[in-house]
């Protein structure tokens, strides 16, 4: 609610208020899309079935690992309620990133101008008297009475406490819990993420913050029209001035029309995205990559120098996204599994010069072994902590000799296929490309063991990619081939991986 006596609301303040309203709506709607892709919340990091503290689905999970994928748990939400809706987690994540970047920028400008103009004194209490006064206002509201206009200068004590909490506590809290879910942050600052309760703790706290923000917005908008409406609408639209009947009516029409227009914009954004999802992916992923380049790409993991996870953190349960290859997908993989992987080969290739070598699982185990404990996260939201062991990608590719001239990426292919394609075309072989800096990270390996045992079939046996600074869609399971390439644009749909092609994720999986 806004009101004033002898004070005004400058144009920059009103403009930022409107922009914040638009962006908060985009954040909440894209957040709904992200939550709908895994409509369950946990405090424990292994996300074991039946241990959710909150869920938005009636589906019951099987207790057995590897028979139920996270994509099977996805729910479809109408575009009127989410951005973009209809099981498009990739675009939902991109729109959330776009909204976050603009919301944070708008917030920084707001706070700077707030202190530069001295208007901070309207919001931030400067006396302890604000608490008893706020309590009196609260009692008055609860008794369905309205404080006298003289209490607002321009805000009453309860409003001041509310605005201070939302701007300087809740907003930073949402930023902190949001970035804590990024693999790049977890790989570089694992103690920080662990302090928040790990990935699931951060995710649950972020959801609680979302509920608080949504509640604040509902109450805030309601009070505008219920408490001294004439003064509120005049100051929100015109910044101040005479409170006359004609001006009040004009301001009310403008506010209601603006709310309707913003709501139409929110929904239109969903339908625009769904009308051409590849176009929406190019725009949103390209926009959010600006933020990744400025911030996350500079945060390289420190590996064992920064290790904080121990055997006590290892998860009892591990979700999967994707089931082992079928006879239709790879009879070669199935036959080799019956022989305990005897005869199965993994190709290490220089695709620039056409040079390759074939390795058996036993050949892999002869290379230097590297192990560590890390938390795996899926872009849908689940997580699990395991001890992984295998060969570092740098050691693996060294068997071909020096890195070939022109090699800019490493690409891994799977014996399995994509779960589904966003445009419903036939499923294609699963693959993912990573840049060379990511490949050279200490915890980028071709893993053949988990928790001291050979990999389970549903987790990628006999060998899978592990890239701990990225989400799980870059961690190719059932690896058949891994190779130097010049440009990932020459493979698949040219987006850098199957999840990028099939679900319109970003090539950069660091957040």
Work out the helicity level.
40-55%
Biggest pleated sheet: 5 strands, mixed
Instruction: Give, in order, the helices and strands.
Output: HEEHHHHHHHHHHHEEHEEHEEHEEEEH
Strand-residue proportion: 5-15%
Mean pLDDT: 91
* Distance between the first and last residues' Cα: 36 Å
Tally of separate domains: 2
Protein structure class? alpha+beta
In what order do the strands lie side by side in the largest sheet?
A: 4-3-12-7-8
The DSSP helix count reads: 16
Question: How many β-strand runs?
Answer: 12
Parts with pLDDT < 50 across at least 5 consecutive residues: 1-6
Please compute the radius of gyration using only Cα atoms: 26 Å
Q: What general outline do the C-alpha atoms trace?
A: elongated
List the helices and strands and how they pair.
Elements: H1 11-37, E1 40-41, E2 54-55, H2 89-116, H3 120-123, H4 130-142, H5 157-179, H6 183-188, H7 190-195, H8 198-226, H9 229-238, H10 245-275, H11 277-294, H12 331-338, E3 346-350, E4 355-359, H13 361-366, E5 370-377, E6 383-392, H14 393-397, E7 409-417, E8 429-435, H15 436-439, E9 444-450, E10 453-454, E11 464-467, E12 479-485, H16 498-503
Parallel strand pairs: 3-12
Antiparallel strand pairs: 1-2, 3-4, 5-6, 6-9, 7-8, 7-12, 9-10, 9-11
Q: What does this protein look like?
A:
The chain is α+β, with helices and mostly antiparallel strands and 511 residues long. It has two domains: 11-57 and 82-294, no CATH class; 304-503, Sulfite Oxidase, Chain A, domain 2, CATH 3.90.420. Helix content is 44%, strand content 13%. It contains 16 helices and twelve strands. The protein has a five-stranded mixed β-sheet. A hairpin with a 2-residue loop joins strand 9 and strand 10. Helix 5 (157-179) runs antiparallel to helix 8 (198-226) and helix 10 packs across helix 11. The longest helix has 31 residues, at 245-275. The chain is elongated. The protein starts with 10 loop residues before the first helix and ends in an 8-residue tail after the last helix. Mean pLDDT is 91; it is low at 1-6.
């Amino acid at each position: 609610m806004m009101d004033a006596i002898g004070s005004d609301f400058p144009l920059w303040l009103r403009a930022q208020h409107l922009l914040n309203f638009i962006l908060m709506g985009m954040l909440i709607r894209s957040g709904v899309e992200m939550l709908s892709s895994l409509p369950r919340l946990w405090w424990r990091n292994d996300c074991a079935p039946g241990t959710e503290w909150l869920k938005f689905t009636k589906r019951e999970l099987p207790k057995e690992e590897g028979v139920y994928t996270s994509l099977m748990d996805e729910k479809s939400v109408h575009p009127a309620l989410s951005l973009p809706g209809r099981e498009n987690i990739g675009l939902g994540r991109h729109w959330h990133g776009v909204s976050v970047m603009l919301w944070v920028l708008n917030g920084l400008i707001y706070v700077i101008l707030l202190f530069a103009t001295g208007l901070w004194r309207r919001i931030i209490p400067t006396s302890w008297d604000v608490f008893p006064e706020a309590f009196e206002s609260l009692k008055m509201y609860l008794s369905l009475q309205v404080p006298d206009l003289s209490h607002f200068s321009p805000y009453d004590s309860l409003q001041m406490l509310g605005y201070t909490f939302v701007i300087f506590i809740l907003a930073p809290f949402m930023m902190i819990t949001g970035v804590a879910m990024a693999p790049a942050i977890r790989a570089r600052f694992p103690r920080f993420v662990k302090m928040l309760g790990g990935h699931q703790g951060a995710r649950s706290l972020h959801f609680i913050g979302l509920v608080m923000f949504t509640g604040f917005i509902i109450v805030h908008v309601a009070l505008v029209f219920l408490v001294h409406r004439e003064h509120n609408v005049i100051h929100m639209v015109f910044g101040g001035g005479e409170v006359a009947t004609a001006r009040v009516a004009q301001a009310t029409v403008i506010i209601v029309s603006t709310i309707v227009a913003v709501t139409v914009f929110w929904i239109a954004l969903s339908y625009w995205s769904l009308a051409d999802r590849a176009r929406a992916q190019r725009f949103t992923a390209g926009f959010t990559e600006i933020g990744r380049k400025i911030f996350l790409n500079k945060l390289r993991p420190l590996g064992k120098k920064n290790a904080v996870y121990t055997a006590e953190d290892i998860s009892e349960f591990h979700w999967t996204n994707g089931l082992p290859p079928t006879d239709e997908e790879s009879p070669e993989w199935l036959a080799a599994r019956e022989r305990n992987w005897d005869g199965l080969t993994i190709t290490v290739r220089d695709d620039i010069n056409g040079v390759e070598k074939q390795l058996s699982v036993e050949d892999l185990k002869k290379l230097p072994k590297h192990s560590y404990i890390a938390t795996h996260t899926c872009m849908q939201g689940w997580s699990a902590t395991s001890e992984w062991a295998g060969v570092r990608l740098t050691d693996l590719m060294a068997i071909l000799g020096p890195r070939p001239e022109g090699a800019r990426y490493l690409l891994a292919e799977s014996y399995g296929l994509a779960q589904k394609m966003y445009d419903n075309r036939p499923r294609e072989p699963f693959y993912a490309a990573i840049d060379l800096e990511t490949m050279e990270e200490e915890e980028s390996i071709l893993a053949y063991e988990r928790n001291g045992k050979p990999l389970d079939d549903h987790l990628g046996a006999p060998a899978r990619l592990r890239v701990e600074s990225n989400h799980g869609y870059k961690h190719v399971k059932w690896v058949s081939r891994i190779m130097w390439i010049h440009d990932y644009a020459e493979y698949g749909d040219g987006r850098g991986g199957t999840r990028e092609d099939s679900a319109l994720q970003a090539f950069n999986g660091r957040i």
